[in-house]
Write a structure and sequence with these properties.
heterodimer, A: about 375 residues, mainly beta, 15-stranded mixed beta sheet, eleven-stranded mixed beta sheet, about 45% strand, B: about 270 residues, mainly alpha, 11 helices, about 0% strand, elongated
């Protein structure tokens, strides 16, 4: 009896183990997948490798694509010549430029990419593609790509992960996707930038500026067109801008200085601040829980304003006829009225933060 | 190679920027270290998400209309039983993974129980005497309890726990670590809470004010809020799927802001 019981138990145990093994078999059989590095964008058609630099004569229209095998920076500089020159450099000196040229219906498409040179090969360092980066002390060797292009060159979207990007002096649209990259665009036609954590600096653009970032800091200076900026946690600063400004920020501050166009700046948990002279437009500054402040020169001629805060304080240095103060039993503080002869429309609002309209000494404008 | 060194090199390894020797060393370490291998996998996943990320940047004014129509098209299951049947009709997870998850759950529970039993008396007293937020905001809605009612300004103040011993403790609201900046998700969640707190405050006033409205005005107001709520629900889903997408976050918070704005209009002016 006991023997039968033991045999029975043993059979049951064996059966259970077999079932478990059968169930786990696909997992056990699966070999660990080796990590693979992400592929870089494929270059168009044939390509050649040039040691040090590559020069191509071009004419309108011409398009340009740039890339980097490493996380070195990519720099594009506009110049007044009908040729494109690309250089690859590192701390070792000259490296390899990969060049590909495609004739398309829209003109020439030039593709440049920086790569490591094989400096052990004395006769032709560009001949061999290195599977792995060459040793350079204990550090990672970064190869930087620097390209000079005609100002009219159209630049394809630049997509990078860690490479910093700088584009200066081209009259066309520049679009950059950079995960952790710092992106600097100066004197470009229009700027469209997305980063996750990388900082963004835009200076003196002629056209539209569109920026979206998760936690990168944003600075826009001297844009002549409209600017639309959306951020989650990075501080946003806009200075000396002439076009309409739309800014939305969740947690980072919004700081606007000497902005001429209409303004729509909305923050959630952070502050919004405007400093400078008023144009003739509309100014809407709003925050959910942060403070909202506007600093106007003491000699400001006039404006129409609505200042409100549901739970916070409302303060103004400018005496203006209050026509819409909330009822005493309301918790909402609200001041509305006209200062001087009226003019630009100001709306400052916060749900629980301070709202303040302040007189400030006019400072000489630093805008060029 | 140690994990500390490996972590410093993972980015470069992924970008194929390590020398052959270093890459080989790291490769050996990764074969033996599941933690570092998992981190590498996470970095890959992050980059893949980023690499496939495309955004038009357009601030589409028709967005809300689209959101509304899509919500209208969404139909709920006819009844709970059919929903339940549908849920279990097809396996969501393969059997080996399920077995592994069950084993993992058993181990984690055992570990947790072990740790809980070992908690020192000093620690227990210290936590029981600590300050605690009165309520988690999400738990307040629909409770109707006076104890849990949100009050302006007071809600955020810490209060001393009234029953420190016998009742199971609610978890303390985790303070943001000063050494590590809060993640975008945390910040967005904080922002959402701000709006939810504001909406809760305004709701009471709206309820008082509604009594004085004509039925037509009340209906219109409720329809407006319902439409905004649908937008909030839709955009919140988008944010949950892409928590670091600034545009998704922007749309969601704009919907919340709109709700606060409408309610304020309703209460004050």
């Amino acid at each position: 009896m006991i023997k039968q019981l033991i045999v029975g138990k043993a059979l049951l145990l064996a059966k259970t183990i077999l079932i478990l093994l059968a169930l786990l078999e696909p997992v056990l059989a699966q070999a660990p997948i080796p990590p693979q590095a992400p592929e870089h964008p494929q270059p168009p058609q044939t390509r050649e490798r040039k040691f040090g630099r590559a020069v191509v004569a071009v004419e309108r229209p011409v398009r340009l694509a740039v890339d980097n095998r490493t996380t070195g920076r990519i720099k594009v500089n506009g110049w007044d010549r009908d040729e494109v020159e690309a250089r690859a450099i590192s701390e070792r000196g000259e490296e390899v430029v990969i060049l590909a040229i495609n004739e398309t219906e829209k003109g020439k498409l030039l593709y440049f990419k920086a790569d490591y040179a094989d400096l052990d090969n004395g006769t032709d360092p560009s001949a061999r593609v290195l599977d792995h980066p060459p040793s350079f002390g204990f550090r990672t060797l970064q190869v930087h790509l620097e390209v000079n292009v005609p100002r009219y060159a159209e630049i394809e979207q630049i997509t990078v992960i860690r490479s910093d990007v700088e584009v200066v002096g081209v009259n066309t649209r520049v679009k950059v996707f950079g995960n952790r990259s710092t992106v600097v665009l100066k004197q470009v036609g229009s700027a469209h930038v997305y980063t996750r954590t990388g900082n963004i600096e835009i200076e003196n653009t002629n056209g539209l500026v569109e920026i979206a970032t998760s936690t990168g800091a944003v600075r826009v200076t001297g844009s002549k067109g409209a600017a639309r900026i959306v951020a989650i946690a990075g501080p946003v600063e806009v200075k000396c801008s002439r076009g309409r400004i739309d800014v939305a920020n969740t947690h980072g501050s919004i700081d606007l200085m000497n902005v001429d166009g209409d303004v729509d700046a909305v923050a959630t948990t952070s502050s919004v601040r405007f400093t400078g002279r008023l144009g003739n437009g509309r100014y809407l500054l709003k925050s959910m829980s942060g403070r909202v402040e506007m600093f106007l020169p003491i000699n400001t001629a006039g404006f129409d304003a609505v200042l409100s805060s549901y739970l916070g304080m409302v303060e103004t240095d400018f005496p203006f006829g209050v026509v819409g103060e909330s009822a005493p039993n309301q918790s909402e503080r609200r001041l509305a009225g006209k200062f001087g002869n009226g003019g630009p429309q100001i709306t400052l609002d916060s749900f629980e933060g301070l709202v303040r309209l302040t007189k400030s000494q006019p400072e000489p404008s630093t805008c060029k | 190679m140690q994990c500390k060194q490996a972590w410093l090199l993972l980015d470069d390894y992924m970008d194929r920027e390590l020398s052959f020797e270093t890459a080989a060393q790291l490769g050996l370490h990764l074969d033996e270290c599941p933690g570092c291998a998992a981190e590498l996998k996470r970095l890959h996943a992050e980059n893949e998400v980023y690499a496939t990320y495309e955004r038009g940047f357009e601030f589409d004014p028709a967005l809300w209309g689209g959101v509304r129509s899509r919500i209208a098209e969404t139909t709920l299951p006819k009844n709970f039983s059919s929903w339940l049947i549908a849920l279990f009709a097809a396996p969501r997870i393969s059997i080996p993974v399920t077995v592994a998850l069950v084993l993992l759950a058993v181990l984690v529970t055992a570990k947790f129980m072990n740790t809980a039993n070992k908690m020192s008396p000093e620690h227990a007293v210290a936590t029981a005497d600590g300050h605690q937020l009165k309520v988690e905001l999400e738990k307040d809605f629909g409770s109707g309890s006076e104890e849990k009612e949100i009050r302006p300004r007071e809600t955020m103040l810490p209060i001393r726990q009234s029953t420190p011993r016998a009742e199971p403790r609610r978890p303390l609201k985790a303070p943001l670590k000063s050494s590590q900046p809060p993640s975008p998700q945390q910040l967005v969640r904080e922002a959402e809470k701000k709006y939810l707190a504001a909406i809760a405050i305004l709701s009471r006033r709206v309820a008082e004010r509604e009594l004085t409205l004509t039925p037509e005005a009340r209906l219109k107001f409720e329809e407006t809020l319902a439409a905004i709520d649908r937008n909030i629900a839709e955009t919140t889903q988008a944010v949950r799927r892409h928590p670091e997408d600034p545009m998704a976050v922007h749309y969601m918070l704009t919907a919340y802001a709109r709700k606060v704005e409408v309610m304020r209009e309703m209460t004050g002016f």
